[in-house]
Amino acid sequence: MKNKGRTLLFLLFLGILAVLPQVPGLITSGFTYHVMILILLYASMAQAWNIIGGYCGQVSFGHSVFFGIGAYGAGMAVVKYGLLPWPGVLIGAVLAALVAMAISFPCFKLSGHYFAIATFAIVEIFNRLFMVWDWIGGALGLDYGLTEEGWLTFVWYDSKKYYFYGALILLGIVFGVVRWIEEHRMGYYLRAVREGQEAAESLGVNSTRVKLAAMGISAFLAALCGAFYAQYNFRVDPPMVMSLDMSMKFVLITILGGCGFFWGPLLGAAILIPLQEYSRIWLGGTGGGVDLIIFGLLIIVVVIKQPTGVMGILYGITHRFGKSRNPEDSGKNQDSGEVK
Amino acid sequence: MALLEVKNVTKRFGALLANDDVSFSVEEGSIVGLIGPNGAGKTTLFNCVSGAYAPSEGEIFFEKTNVAGFSPHRICQMGLVRTFQVVKPLRGMTVLENVMVGAFCRTQDTRKAREIAEEVISLCELEHRREANASSLTIGDKKRLEVARALATRPRILLLDEVMAGLTTSEVNHAVQLMLKLRERGVTLLMVEHIMEAIMPIADRVVVLDGGCKIAEDSPDRVVKNERVIEAYLGKKYAERQKKMEERKEGASHA
Q: Is B57 exposed, middle or buried (0-12, 13-18, 19+ CB in 10 A)?
């Protein structure tokens, strides 16, 4: 079966990544770990976004809010209540899903770009709200105190190795969920809604429910990523998580890699994150904007040259050299990843 | 009671009266044709029945439930499904995947949905395009895909909106054969069609709309002789041709 093969490939990929730190001399510096952790984290974030933005075709600019709620969930549990992060992670993720569905429910009744516009607005709203909300630390945010290291507290000070494994597990969860969705009814319904809501409705698809479910799952997973981010940085404050910058990264990484493709988010992250991190070193003092300029330029090039992202380019190459005798299939990848 | 009963349906768009007090019924297992000139309100009526529009007035009974104003997906799940005159293939998906979306209406299981889809695809003679992208199909195959997708939802009644328009003569013959096959399987058909040669031989009844009103409802051979229908839609030429053909037939049988 084609599907079994793809799942096997995914498990094999996770296995290879898991072995990497064990190879002596391969990953020597903490910075290499840092870059790899960020790739895995951002790939997971982008994949979470891919559910609603890629497969379902509803472009959301609000994912930093759900990411932030997840981060604050973990932060509140640890800093405010002195607990382990886990109950906070769960509560944060559920809250993020609920907020996401509450915001999108009225927008999904409208068609076109209303959804994208509305999600833009909520980032600002939540950013301001969290800035002035003293109970959750206000503009100062929440700073982690010293605690014991280990998987229970999900905090490590010396080595980044365990964060790497944590990020790998996160990626496994998020990508696993998407793989499951792809193979089941929901995956077909998501794409049907993207390609033609009216046609989908006529075939028994409750498009509002499908979009709400996709939004809920997407926000839940984004919140898990946010919790990891807080644990990794030992702190959380509003501009760090709830900003348009952060929202853009969800969107841009996916679009660069290939919107609506399973491997798209990982490819996008593997290209953009090293660029971002290394340009930050080389261009040090010039501030945080340079990576976004590079993001922007890359996106412009990709959108003009190949709207389906790097995955589209790769498909194009394999089709030219592989099954090029099927001319009717060459249109397939041109169409499938479009954001509408 | 009939499987589908349209009762006094009126649909207004502002001052425009697209459907004016239309009533008719479709018996289970029959093929009913819905004909009329362009702008007569046929597609609007389809939209009302399938849930895309809520009728301004009137009732639509499907299996004794008034479904007027229900959402399309709910009506589809009840067993009434329509195809679109302007075909709407799900572009980024293959033919098989398109049909599977329909099949998922009756099952959650991917494998079962694929089985249903494969069966419907072979019924509609689309096997050779199974893995092709839906947007790459010819117009004839796209129309077949519309029918296949709708059939995969296992409907009790299928509303076909001009599935034969734009097809070649041999394609039309194939489509007619398919319609007859569907009736054998117990699917009731309500079809909008402009190709009289296709619809008249297979329809049990024909409903004629003009300017939003129903002007006739009868068996096909009586409808073609109806003065109002000839005036509004079929035209004098069709009537003359029909008369000649009958005379020829009579002549042959006398001889």
A: middle
Query: Which uninterrupted H or E stretch holds A86?
Result: helix A85-108
Residues of B in contact with A260 (CB under 8 A): 92
Q: Are the C-beta atoms of residues A227 and A4 closer than 8 Å to each other?
A: no
* Helical axes A207-233 vs A85-108, angle rounded to 10°: 150
User: Given B97, B132, B136, which is nearest A188 (Cβ)?
Assistant: B97
Q: Which residues contact B61 (CB under 8 A, 6 or more apart)?
A: B1, B4, B5, B7, B67
Nearest C-alpha neighbor of A252 from the set A49, A35, A41, A36 = A49
Query: CA–CA separation, B149 vs A221, rounded Å?
Result: 33
The DSSP line for A196-257 is: -HHHHHHTT--HHHHHHHHHHHHHHHHHHHHHHHHHHHTEE-HHHHSSHHHHHHHHHHHHHH
The A residues from 188 to 227 touching B (CB cutoff 8 Å) are: 188-189, 191-192, 194-196, 198-207
Phi/psi of residue A337, nearest 5 degrees: -100, 5
User: What parts of chain A have a pLDDT lower than 50?
Assistant: 1, 323-340
What is the tens place of the pLDDT at every residue in B134-166?
999 988 889 999 999 999 999 999 999 998 888
pLDDT digit string (tens) for B89-139? Answer: 999 899 999 999 999 999 999 999 999 999 999 999 899 998 999 999 988
Query: In one letter, which amino acid is B28?
Result: E
pLDDT at B165: 84
CA distance A135 to chain B (A): 44
- Out of B90, B110, B135, name the one closest to residue A192 (CB): B90
What are the CA-CA distances from residue A326 to residues A331, B120, B132, B133 (Å)? 10, 24, 9, 11
**Measured CA distances, B30 to A153, B171, B185, B193 (Å):** 69, 23, 11, 16
ipTM of the complex: 0.89
